[in-house]
Design a protein that fits this description.
By secondary structure, the chain is an all-alpha fold. It has 3 helices and no strands.
Length: about 60
């Protein structure tokens, strides 16, 4: 799934860019795996996928 498609899905679920940034910070600080997200909306997404969503949020 492309970053902008995933961003749209997350937006539709009520996720904000702040939630995305918080998940990125959490993953970087804890080295959390994709099955251990801080926010369940990001379940099974790799850090790279979450970063891509962040970059494509406003597209």
């Amino acid at each position: 799934m492309r970053g902008y498609e995933a961003a749209k899905i997350l937006k539709d679920q009520g996720i904000t860019i702040e939630d995305v940034k918080e998940e990125i910070a959490y993953r970087k600080e804890t080295n959390a795996l994709s099955n251990q997200p801080k926010n369940e909306a990001f379940m099974n997404m790799t850090l790279n996928e979450v970063l891509r969503i962040s970059e494509m949020w406003d597209v």
